[in-house]
Amino acid sequence: GENVEQHPSTLSVQEGDSAVIKCTYSDSASNYFPWYKQELGKRPQLIIDIRSNVGEKKDQRIAVTLNKTAKHFSLHITETQPEDSAVYFCAPPKEGGGADGLTFGKGTHLIIQP
Amino acid sequence: DAGITQSPRHKVTETGTPVTLRCHQTENHRYMYWYRQDPGHGLRLIHYSYGVKDTDKGEVSDGYSVSRSKTEDFLLTLESATSSQTSVYFCAISGTLAGVQYFGPGTRLTVT
What we know:
The structure holds two protein chains of two kinds. By secondary structure, chain A is an all-beta fold. Chain A has no helices and ten strands. Chain B is built from no helices and eleven strands. The mean pLDDT of chain B is 95. Chain B has strands at 4-7, 10-13, 19-25, 31-38, 42-51, 54-57, 64-70, 73-78, 87-94, 102-103, 107-111. Chain B is mostly beta strands. Helices cover 0% and strands 58% of the residues of chain B. Chains A and B meet through strand 5 of A and strand 4, strand 5, strand 9 and strand 10 of B.
């Protein structure tokens, strides 16, 4: 099956600084690369995604970059704010892109220090 | 949030009892999923459905069964609950194959 690894598992940054979370995957046929955010006690929610025909996508303070050759994609958050504190998951499609959906990484706990 | 609900939201049950969790959607999405979430493990797929009466196993399906008799409902059953099944259970829906998933609010299950 698809092997997905996220790094780091925990990331602590000062408010206002940038944060970068990296996700590596194994299935070279993957063509969809989403990031989910889960606040404490809440459900995971999609925050940004990218298709394999583009290398970068930006939405205000968040961006996702894709390197298909190296099989990794990254989440970038600039000017971090307290509300960015959450667990972030990458979730590329399972190998074969079938009905079993997405493979979720183990998550990165982002802590924003005031 | 997409029109997706889960019931119950919290449940405490004893070892050996049967438990059924319900996921209900109003989006008419074809694909539905059950995950469990435990510290250090992220989200792990239990079972999924790709249509009415069409279901298959995920990576942690032992001890669980599912049914989908209509598009809007996906039921997860623990035939005989064990303490290792204490977890938070999330249902998710998707309108596209291997595409974006929308999650329900979750059910916190405690097996004593």
